Structures are given as C-alpha cells and as structure tokens.
Amino acid sequence: MADADLDVARARADRLAERLAVEPDVEAIDALAATYPARATQEARFDARDALDLPARADDLGRALEEVGFARARFEDALAHMRSAPREVLEVPAAPDGPTRILLARYLGFDRGEHLVAVHVVLPDADPARIARVDGVIATVDPAASLTGYGRLELSLRETLARDLPRVGLASALLVVALLALSLRRAREVVVAAVVVAVVVSGVLALATAVGVPLHAYSALVLPVLLGITVDEATFLLHGARSAPPGEDPIEHGLTAEAPPITTTALTTAGGFGALAICDFDGLAHLGAMGAFGSLVGLVAAVILVPAGLRLLGGARRG
Known about the structure:
By secondary structure, the chain is mostly helical. It has 11 helices and 5 strands, in the order βαβααααβββαααααα. The model has no long low-confidence stretch (mean pLDDT 85).
C-alpha cells in the first residue's frame, strides 16, 4: 500500500490483511496488523468488543466458572478487565530501535513522498487460477494496491522475454559484431568470434532447457556476463594466433599461449557459479547452474571453434 498519510496506508493494509486471512486460497499472511494495527483498525476492534457488552457478561462468566468447579476468585482480575475494558490505542514507536526497528523495516518504507506498507502473502503453490482468484480479492478490497514479489516478477519476465527477446537478441548481436569489428578489424576473425558467441548462447539455452533450468528474473541476469566472457575467450585466442612469430603455426601458437589462462579462468568461474547451484533458494540455484553451464560451454566452443574457423577461413597463415 502506498499513501502520503501513513495512518491511511496502514489502515488499508490492515483491511486487506484481515480479508486475506480468511481467504481459502491463501496459506499464510504476515502483516503489521498482528502487532501494530493502525489507529482506525484498533478503534474498529474496540467498537466490536464493546458491542459484545463484556461488563454484563462478566458475572455470567463468573457463575459459569463456579458451576463447573473452578475457583472464581482466581479469575477476578480477568473479570475486572471485562467490566472495565480499556480503549488504549497502541502507537508505532516514533524512533524505533533494536528489534522493533528490524520488525518495522519488514513492513514500512518511504519512497517518493509516500509511505509504503507491505502485506506478505504466502500461497500454497503457483497455480495461475489460484493467483488470479487472490488478485481478484485484492482488487476488490483495495484497487490501488500494488502487487509485487518474486513470483509475479517471474511471470512478468516470461511475458517480457517472449515479446522482447527476439528484438533484444538482434540488437545485441549487431552491437557485438560492431564491437568485434572495431577490435579485431579482420573479417574472418569477426566471423569466427561471432559464430562462437552464437553457438555459446544457443548451447547454454538448449542445455538449460534439457536439464530443467528455467529462464527467469535471476537466471536471465547471467546471460550478459556469459556473453562478455565468451567474447573475451574468443578474442584472446584470435590475438594469440595473430601474434605468432614467423615460421610458427598461428593456431598452435594461439592455443599454446592463451588456452591455459582462459581454461583456468573459465573453470574457476564455473566453480564459483556452480557453488550457487546448491542454494535452497531456486532463483540463486538456477543462476548458478546457468552460469556454470555457460562458462563450460563457452570454453569448449572457443577452444574448438576458433582454431577450426581460422583453419577453414584461412587464418592459419599469417598475413
């Protein structure tokens, strides 16, 4: 919830939390209303309590306790509270510190002149029909509520990828080719490096699909990194071949000079990403798997395709 008035935002969040708490499609609710309800929420609860006429029921409760064998005197403090129930409103501390600060930071924020109040909703699964029903409840209670979270970001990313990935891929390919042309300045080397990049990207996506690693908000983040690593490996091998001394085979020289360092960096990078693959959080686990696959596929593609491309296109001869 977002509102310029903190009390209004908190009251809106309380209403939503109370409605979702009885929604069958919701597994759990975590909201500030459980510990620091808004003033309007507290007043409404006091009114509901007072409507029960607790003072008149105190004596009835006392007699009922005696009838079933309880010592009424032991309950006099509770019965006294029923006869004169307080209406003391609990306020959020103006300057919270310690555990209270940590607690409130989970629910309260401020951005661009508006107070933000979060209601954390847990669903038993990601069933689209269930999500749609919960969204409908939220829209009914508060049409201005903003819905976010990892699951929603993932759905949004999938829709965006399906729509924009071809355009972004084409623009990225043109940019990579242009930068390779400026750096290498030899048509055959640009072609070889571009082929390596294309093979690596398609190979990583195919391998990830084969082993069940989805493309989402986390795993997609590693693709630009893999693109840069692949360009580096291909470029190092190409420059190594170009710098071969007279009389020495350029491809052999390039592999001898550059294959060990790029292998080392690729394997250490794959190891670093691979360590994330054992995380309990699926987002980081998928990111790690995608990064490890990409590092290994990029290494194999560069070491095989660069020498083969140079040999095929005439790059084995200096000139």
